[in-house]
Amino acid sequence: MINSMGRMADAFWRAAAYCLRPQVIMLSLLPFLLCASTAFGLGYFFWEPSVAGMRSMMESWLLVDTLLGWLDYVGAGGFRSVMAPLLVLAFALPVIVVLSLLLVSGLMTPVLVRLVAKRRFSGLELRQGAPWWLGLAWSLGHGLLALLALLVSIPFWLIPPLVLVVPPLIWGWLGYRVFSFDALAEHADAQERQQLLREHRVQLLGMGLVTGYLGAAPAAIWAFGVMAVALAPVLVLVSIWLYMLVFAISTLWFTHYVLAALQQQRQRQAPSASDNQSVNQVDTDLLLAQLPPV
Fold first, then answer.
1. How far apart are CA 83 and CA 90, in angstroms?
2. Looking at per-residue confidence, does 290 or 50 come out higher?
3. CA distance 129 to 141
4. Listed residue (254, 238, 211, 228) closest to 108, CA to CA
5. What is the pLDDT of residues 60-100, one digit of tens each?
6. Rounded to an integer, what distance in angstroms lies between the CA atom of residue 39 and that of residue 26?
7. Which of 135, 191, 255, 270 could cross-link to 183 by cystine, CB 3.0-4.6 Å?
8. What single DSSP character describes residue 76?
9. pLDDT tens readout for residues 236-285
10. Among residues 130, 200, 158, 127, which one has the least CA distance to residue 63?
11. pTM surpassing 0.70?
């Protein structure tokens, strides 16, 4: 366990150092611009209808209408006007997170994996265990499952302790599944990938949980409450940039860890392969010795 913690810490600090490279910083600009432009485009066309629909839905719920009436009674009626926009932002945030992760996975991860492999694992054989379309399907499928899990778990967010546990767990599971697969896609075959993910499941889940909490941290900037609505354009940009940074570090962290684990796995298997070759050679020599002379 101590060795595993050491390898995880070593991979993390290497990932943090790689994020300071100009190449990595420039590489993050494209997914950031794509995600930001998509978010602002959707906001431009759907912000007002979404807020109006949310306000109408809130007024149709007796419990929410009672809560709004109580806010008016205690003198906090101003919160009524911003409650609907805040809820729209709360529902849009998971979509922004998943979109950011998919863009990093599709545009940054392949380049980052090749960068790490070139500088640290240049002797590691490429076995092309997963084509690009399988990686895309894997990321999209797990992204949809994560959104569904978040949607189902929304009632638990109203319980103070669970809101600090459930979303990071979902993000951690998503990061563990996506980043591990992408990091191994070019270097490991299917059997190696399955074996490595099985043997290092606990460590990878732990790394995913850490990245899940890192991914949940940018949501804290929305704690401005009423001011968050006025500052929404700026906060959206800051959130997207923070998510890109978190996902870039996560990609590099998982890449350093799983490629090192893959290298060790092949080194362990190499002696057994050579032993089998020696045994086969001995069997062949014995068989030839038993043949009658010509």
1. 10
2. 50
3. 19
4. 254
5. 765 556 666 665 655 555 566 677 787 788 788 888 888 88
6. 21
7. 255
8. -
9. 888 888 888 888 899 999 999 999 999 999 998 876 544 444 434 434 44
10. 158
11. yes
* DSSP sequence for 21-48: SHHHHHHTHHHHHHHHHHHHHHHHHHHH
Which residues have a Cβ under 8 Å from the Cβ of 200 and sit 6 or more positions away?
257, 258, 261
Residue 127 backbone phi and psi in degrees, to 5: -115, 0
The C-alpha atoms of residue 269 and residue 259 are separated, in whole angstroms, by 15
Q: Indicate the average pLDDT of the chain.
A: 80
Amino acid at 246: V
> Which one, of 41, 184, 156, 25, lies nearest residue 99 by Cα?
41
Question: What is the spatial distance between Cα 149 and Cα 171, in angstroms, rounded to a whole number?
Answer: 10
Alpha carbon 218 to chain centroid, angstroms: 14
How is the chain split into domains, by residue range? Answer: 2-45+85-269
